[in-house]
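Hello forum,

I keep getting stuck at the same step: I have a sequence, I want structure tokens, and every attempt I make locally crashes halfway through. Rather than fight my setup again tonight, could one of you with a working pipeline run this one for me? It's a single chain of 126 residues.
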Amino acid sequence: MPNEQLISTIIIILTSVISLGVVIALIIVNRGRNKFTEITLDESRRLPHHRCPKCGFNMTPGFIFTQRGLFWRKPETKPMTMLMTRGKLMNNTYNMGFTAAENRAWKCDRCELVLIDVSEMVRIRR
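Reply #2:
Ran it on my machine without issues. Output:
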């Protein structure tokens, strides 16, 4: 019994170390993918307006926090799962929450369509 507990403890520790290593590697690899700009709170309230391409209604401007990024795939590519992403991580969408950066976005309150600007991430200076 004591050997089984020791093995279980070692497995848990190794799994934790590997998981932490993967997170650190993702942060380092994806840090260079993001383009950031800083805007003031006043500038954040003056986002340009867009009409919904689906229904033509005025969309509500705002921001969206993507954290672990957005993955893009073509229709002919097999769908993604929790463990395996088969899409391409889109630039300017991955931030792990350390940068307090978001993407500009517009939401249609009628049909729930969301447009996301991934040309850069935005930090709001307070």
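The chain has two helices and seven strands. If your local run keeps crashing, start a new thread with the error log.
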